[in-house]
Design a protein that fits this description.
The chain is of the alpha/beta class and about 575 residues long. The chain contains 21 helices and 16 strands.
Length: about 575
């Protein structure tokens, strides 16, 4: 009798486990971004191959006259780059041999099949000498309109941050680089951060990645649960638990990657008792379930982005309710997007409150920082009843006086009337600018449009093409300074005047017209995005088979051959 009971219970447990597993699978996005282990495996299997000069210009089987036009245009562009960016390119080559960051970014500006030719002939250089207003000046003396946004740091303009650093340094100069103790400005910073976040306590860290790490550690510590949930495509720093799939040497063991803006994900949250926290990065509202875009992935024209504020706010409200119901910690990762949307960050902008919030980028007043704000019961790093049960987090440079001084200046001016005026009409200003530019692009029959979340923009390409990634080089030739992801993310500072923006818009249109004129976007093509992807897949399989045929199908060996002798 007891054996039957035990067998029945075991059967129920197995069925329940299978049900939860099926529910989890349904909540994963069908793309590789939603299946991290498969994506990571395929990343290791994809072989390197490159196009020769003939293939470089005819990867879409364009007619001979179009190929010839591209070759001539590429040579003109290469000559312009060699003349205009001579010193910067030479200095970059000199330093890159010893700086792994530069080696990485150089290889991943364009799809790898085209990379060698681009690296040889279109080097703009990585060195700047000064910034002023909306412009930066490189080591060759070129004045460039900046749309890199200093990777999100530059919210109110470079001159503003120079002022924050200068005034903040003067405030703390007498203390200097003393660590461990706090400068008195920290008291003001803490008070303002509590007001902005609506939360009880604050901790300081040296980067956004560190801040998110600590927020997750605290959530796990207090809930006594293991798993974190992140949404497909979202970026939360480069540490292992939030970087599943390609880019992480080891697969994370305690992370669920679920579909953004999907009811199936809410069902998973309700059904499981092992989820400690949910991470939300508000920038994903621009491209839900897609990884942060980069021109290195522009194999075709399938990039898609669109922002619907009401829909994303409704999703966050549902997520908030489920997390409250299930005792799950809701974390807003506002490192990048927070203050760019509103003075109170994404919480204010979307009307939803989180349990823990992380800030970074702009809040440091131009210096590196990460901040965690949270409810008092979640921020505590020890168990009062068990003195050896602690959640340790400390950094040598946390609360560095010079960082705290610059932060003080940022937070002081954030409450000024001049800054409040910027935020008052923020969405209307950038919506008007985007709509005007898109109308110009349509009127000129140019195959691209911009999508945006406030002052963060990306380009969508409307005609299937293998060469959309070339557009970034035409924009640089027109005098725009972009980040290494190219046209995937343009970040405007909020001090851009109408005249500044008009100058950028002129350059965007002129670069697109040149792309058409030079044959990279040619009329009459019968290409489809599906056909492009099929062709690339055939090339990958052929390259893999060729590599395997010469003995590389054996088990992968370590890339490290041992210490120097």
């Amino acid at each position: 009798m007891w054996w039957y009971v035990i067998g029945a219970l075991l059967s129920l447990l197995v069925l329940r486990k299978a049900q939860l597993r099926l529910m989890l699978s349904r909540a994963k996005h069908p793309s590789l971004a939603g299946h991290a282990r498969i994506g990571r495996l395929l990343g290791r299997l994809i072989p390197y191959y490159e196009y020769d000069e003939r293939q470089f210009f005819s990867a879409d089987d364009a007619p001979a006259e179009i190929v010839a036009a591209r070759q001539a245009a590429f040579k003109r562009l290469a000559d312009l780059y060699a003349q205009r960016f001579c010193r910067g390119a030479a200095l970059t080559r000199e330093v890159a041999a010893a700086v792994s960051d530069l080696q990485f970014t150089a290889r991943y500006r364009v799809p790898f099949q085209f990379g060698r030719m681009v690296r040889q002939h279109l080097q703009a250089g990585a060195f700047l000498e000064s910034s002023c207003g909306a412009t930066v000046t490189d080591v060759d003396g070129n004045h460039l309109l900046d749309v890199s946004g200093s990777y999100g740091v530059n919210l109110f303009g470079y001159d503003y941050y120079k002022g924050c650093i200068e005034r903040g340094s003067a405030l703390v100069r007498e203390l200097g680089p003393v660590l461990g103790a706090y400068h008195p400005v920290v008291a003001y910073n803490v008070r303002r951060l509590r007001e902005i976040s609506g939360l009880d306590e604050v901790s300081f860290h040296m980067s956004g990645t560190e801040a998110v790490m600590q927020a997750v550690r605290l959530a796990r510590y207090h809930t006594r649960r293991r798993y974190l949930v992140r949404f497909c495509g979202a970026y939360h720093g480069w540490w292992g638990d939030v970087q599943p799939g390609v880019g992480n040497p080891l697969p994370p063991e305690a992370t669920y990657t679920l579909k953004d803006m999907d009811a199936a994900s809410l069902r998973v949250l309700r059904s499981r008792s092992d989820i400690a926290c949910v991470l939300v990065n508000p920038i994903q509202a621009l491209h839900p379930n897609a990884s942060a875009p980069a021109d290195s992935g522009l194999l075709d024209s399938a990039r898609s982005a669109h922002f619907d504020r009401a829909a994303y706010a409704a999703w966050l409200a549902k997520l908030r309710d489920v997390c409250t119901e299930c005792g799950i910690v809701l974390i807003f990762d506002e490192i990048f997007a927070g203050f760019r949307l509103a003075a109170g960050g994404a919480q204010e902008y979307f009307g939803v409150r989180a349990d823990l919030v992380t800030y970074g980028k702009s809040v440091g007043g131009g210096l590196p920082v990460g901040v965690v704000c949270g409810r008092r019961e979640l921020m505590r790093r020890y168990d009062e009843g068990h003195p050896a049960d602690v959640c340790l987090a400390r950094g040598t440079f946390n609360s560095h006086p010079y960082v705290m001084g610059a932060m003080h200046e940022f937070l002081m001016t954030l409450d000024s009337e001049a800054v409040r005026a910027i935020y008052r009409n923020l969405d209307a200003v950038w919506e008007h600018r985007a709509a005007g530019l898109n109308a110009r692009l349509r009127s000129a029959a140019l195959p691209l449009q911009v999508a945006h979340l406030s002052s963060v923009w990306t380009f969508n390409y409307s005609t299937p093409s293998r060469y959309n990634w070339m557009y970034q080089y035409y924009l640089r030739a027109q005098g725009l300074s972009l980040s290494w992801v190219g046209t995937a993310r343009l970040i405007f500072s909020l001090d851009y005047t109408d005249a500044d923006f008009a100058a950028v818009a002129e350059r965007i249109v002129a670069a697109a017209e040149a792309m058409c004129r030079d044959g990279w976007w040619w009329p009459g093509t019968t290409l489809t995005n599906k056909a492009i992807r099929r062709r690339v897949l055939r090339e990958l399989l052929q390259a893999w088979w060729t590599t395997s045929s010469i003995g590389s199908r054996s088990s992968p060996r370590s890339r490290y051959s041992g210490a120097r002798q």
